[in-house]
Amino acid sequence: MNDANQTTKMLQAILSGQTALKQELIGRIDKVDLKVDGLDGKVDKLDKKIDKVEKRLTERLDKIGMQLAYLEDDTPTREEFDQLEQRVNTLSP
Fold it and tell me: Which chain positions lie within coiled-coil regions (predicted)?
């Protein structure tokens, strides 16, 4: 009976150790879950900020593109410029 009692005590010690290990792991997993949940909110805020910046940059690039297009429309082409130079030479005495 003494051997059976010893075996029971050894098995009980192993089970107690496994239970303690399981509890420790569950505690650590819960801490990681809390940290991840906290990061979700930060990621959402970062996504919103990036969207706002992208929108502002797109608007600014559109304005610059329109200004450039207007400047191109106002400038004479090379042929027009060459003709203008000849016409000015002709009008000058």
Answer: 36-63
